[in-house]
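Table S2 (continued). Query chain:
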Amino acid sequence: MTNTEQEEQGRVRENTPESINERIDSSIRQSIARYKGRSYGEISERIRELDQEWSIERTLEVNASTLALTGTLLGAFINKRWFILPGIVSTFLLQYGLQGWCPPLTVMRSLGIRSRREIDEERYALKALRGDFDKISPKNSPSEILDSVRNT
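Corresponding output:
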């Protein structure tokens, strides 16, 4: 993860009420506890589920583009007043890009939608439980280490 991505992930948590962050963290801890001692296959199935989970970033992008497209189509074919919708949505996206916060973010976070970083934290904790990182040694080459991480 690049520094920019790490900064963005941190901004989501910084701009989320602490009670919501704690609820999300608690659900991650509960999931890890639930899978501790489970079989390789059960943990692998949960990791596959995490691979399909939409992050807050993806959810915001898809919802914003859907609303902007809808507003544009309604403005073009129904009433020009609908053009205000893409303007509002674009403003929210700009605000999110610059500040790491926009009004829909709090609502989506309160629904339990997690950042990519939070999803990855659970994924890598489960991979550690599964024993994926036992294969990695400091004596391995950087390429071997990267291949091990990518293939787990």
